[in-house]
Design a protein that fits this description.
mainly alpha; Na+/H+ antiporter like fold; 0% strand; transmembrane helix; membrane; transport; cell membrane
Length: 305
Amino acid sequence: MGSFNLQFLYCIIIIALGYLLKRGGIIKEKDGEGLSRIIFNITLPTLIIVTFHDIKIETSLFLLILMGFLYGIFIGFIALFLFRKKQRNIKGMLGMMVPGFNIGLFAYPLVEVIFGKEGLTYFGMFDVGNAFIVFGLSYLIGSFYSKEDVKLDPKTVVIKLSKSIPLMTYIIVVIVNLIELRIPSTILNVAEIISAANMPLSLLLLGIYLNFTFDKSYIKLMVQFLGVRYGIGLVIGISCFFLLPFDDMFKYTLLMGFLLPTSVSVLPYSVEFEYDQKFVGTLSNITIILSFVILWVLANLLISP
């Protein structure tokens, strides 16, 4: 366990480095947008290719896709019900933030440290279901409640899903795996080199986006949001951990997965739908810090020394 905690410490140092570079003016927060696009569209897809190209996908792993998708729908509608008395724009803002998890940027580097390649496989399958929530349900909720006369446009959502390079990579690589096609070794070798950059770049990006200042008037709304998201996630996660008849890695994935930070996609959504961007950004940062602490505690409790 000492080695694991040391790896966690390295993660914290890299995150802190990103934060200090921002505070020192060497890197600006807006630079994180370009770095984020590199991670989402290059390093993360290559990591998916390297992780999934030759693994044996068990039937139980497909259930992780369904679990990620159904949980997102469940907690999304629970949130809309609990926040039903809020103003329309607040309900839409909170409603789009509750479902969906930050797996590609936040979970992958930590899961790689905790569980290795096996963990990436499980969380990758969970992320496929999560992707439909992030780019589908969250987008629909944010769009619908942004203005009084907004109409849902399924075509827009479908187009957005098809343009998600990580999601399309998941689907293509899993299909290739199932039909037992071989990816050319040249592609795999190049992908492996690029994928090695995913963890440090993702951790640096988390540091760049960290912000410890916020408006005190946000506190009550933030506490309500965190209570819904983490309260429900903890109850469902613990229930799945003790009740489901699957292997430990499957149960670790659900328990930790339901307690991950809110998706980074809510930040561009807040711009597109004219929500309070400072509130969304601040609350996203809080979920990152809170989830980091929770995962460290869970990892120390669940993993044998």
